[in-house]
Amino acid sequence: QNTIYLDIKDGRVVIELLPDLAPNHVARIKELTRKGFYDGIVFHRVIEGFMAQTGDPTGTGTGGSGEKLKAEFSAEPHVRGILSMARSGHPDSADSQFFIVLEEASHLDRQYTAWGRVTSGMDFVDGIKRGHPSSGAVEDPDKIVKMQVAADVEK
Questions:
Q1: How far apart (Å, rounded) are the C-alpha atoms in residues 35 and 43?
Q2: Within a 10 A sphere around the Cβ of 145, how many other Cβ atoms?
Q3: Which residue, of 52, 92, 105, 131, has the greatest Cβ tally within 10 A?
Q4: 0.85 cut: is pTM over it?
Q5: DSSP at 129
Q6: How far apart are the two ends of the chain, measured CA to CA in Å?
Q7: Interatomic CA distance for residues 16 and 4, integer angstroms
Q8: In sequence order, which residues have a C-beta less than 8 Å from that of residue 154 and are 6 or more positions away?
Q9: What pLDDT is stored for residue 63 in this prediction?
Q10: What is the pLDDT of residue 155?
Q11: Would residue 47 be called left, alpha or beta, if left means φ above 0 and alpha means ψ between -120 and 50 degrees?
Q12: Which residue ranges of the chain lie beneath pLDDT 50?
């Protein structure tokens, strides 16, 4: 019930959800996942040594699902494999965009909502096409093939 499968070009990334840390964000991610919202969405911002960001249906970094979430900041450290919500300057502006931390990013701790962690397939995440070194903008970006709540997938 608290596992998500994130299928990308190189394989399946298994994500453990963290409802104890971010119950509302986990519920919203599951809801969007079940609607197929994330299927086909690109990794529009990928910065080597930092993170890979996705979840914007427009692929520009400015779009979302249209529903903002109240921040659920925690002490969970932003280390390799953590999934966290992207947001604007306002703490309660997270929507559908999220990122996977590629290397430790402690400057994000207690300022972004961590809601999941990669339990397997981080090597596939490492294969996501990188963007511009400073902006992270990706030309011809990789995409999410399919994202599913594991409990919904037939064995």
A1: 19
A2: 15
A3: 52
A4: yes
A5: P
A6: 14
A7: 7
A8: none
A9: 96
A10: 59
A11: beta
A12: none
